[in-house]
């Protein structure tokens, strides 16, 4: 899992603090060292989800079973279209395709565990846009930072659905969740106008914390629940928020504070996306 900042850090603290062996997979392992101090069961390893060579090296170097993969690396709304080492639009590359490659590379290690779990971090942005199968890389349509982010987070929910449909026979369960609104490095690309519009910044550029914002620890709570709690043993293919399963929304694109869009858990879309991702690695 990525755990050098934000809710990832709090997930590390909760799991390692309970005695779990935790590997913080991050582009810069040195950045995780301050977090790992005091947790003898935690360590850091190099992993760049924007580069398949790094993902393959990480998976090839793994030994032993994996009880849980927490897929929580992410990038949000860079203003200009960027591409990964493989030429993929960067948000889709890091938020979805990199995680897809990672869990596939660790499939045998997950299957070897007693009760293996995959936890995928999504976002409320999945309520705004579905996955555009006609042009997911923004190669023909104008690049829209938030649309690109939203479709990558829809893809994350569908990833959990896809895993639950294909790997249940291996005993692997997978669920996604929404951490909520939190001040973390994820929002570094958002404009001042956007931050002000959601009440998270004043006119001088100082951060504000609206009542609906959470702390990183509160945002990580659902991650820890899905990764380790016996309360959700055997639960798979679901989407959670605030430590409970999300209500399914039946409408179209709209701004709401909770719920999962029906298209984000559609098994037909999950199967189609699974095939699309496989095609990218061919």
Structure characterization notes:
The protein is α/β, with parallel strands linked by helices and about 280 residues long. It has a single domain (about 5-280), classed as 3-Layer(aba) Sandwich (Rossmann fold), CATH 3.40.50. About 35% of the residues lie in helices and about 10% in strands. The protein contains 9 helices and 9 strands. It has helices at about 5-15, 30-35, 50-60, 90-105, 105-110, 145-165, 190-195, 215-230, 265-280, and strands at about 20-25, 40-45, 70, 115-120, 175-180, 240, 245, 250, 260. The strands form 3 sheets. A 5-stranded mixed β-sheet has the order 3-4-5-6-7, with helices on both faces. Strands 1-2 form a two-stranded parallel sheet. Helix 1 crosses helix 8 and helix 4 packs parallel to helix 6. The longest helix is centred in the middle third of the chain and has 22 residues, at about 145-165. It starts with 5 loop residues before the first helix and ends with a helix. The mean pLDDT is about 95. Belongs to the short-chain dehydrogenases/reductases (SDR) family. It comes from Kitasatospora aburaviensis. Pfam families: adh_short (PF00106). Keywords: Oxidoreductase. This is SDR family NAD(P)-dependent oxidoreductase.
